[in-house]
Amino acid sequence: MASSWRRTFGNMRSFVSNSMGGLRGGSNLASWVVAGTLAYFLWIKPSQDLKREQQEKAALAAAESDPYRYVETRKPIPDPQVTGLIYGNKSKDKPTKPED
User: Fold this and answer.
1) Residue 72 pLDDT
2) What does the radius of gyration of the chain's CA atoms come to, in whole angstroms?
């Protein structure tokens, strides 16, 4: 009875090993890494890039067609205290009085 499932397991293992080209150990792993890398750069990455470009084009088209979109017309004025034009204590450096 025990030899039956061992034989079945051995047959399955042989089948899987033979279906992967009969390579064992490090060479098998290396071949799968190479095949996976090639598949990624030849099929998966180009399709992802194409999908990303299509989404960006759709987003740009949607933004350009919106007449009520917000457009920044002036640059914000930087705080002279933060930029170093005015010296002294910054607001975050001021000690706060403990409340009683």
Assistant:
1) 75
2) 32
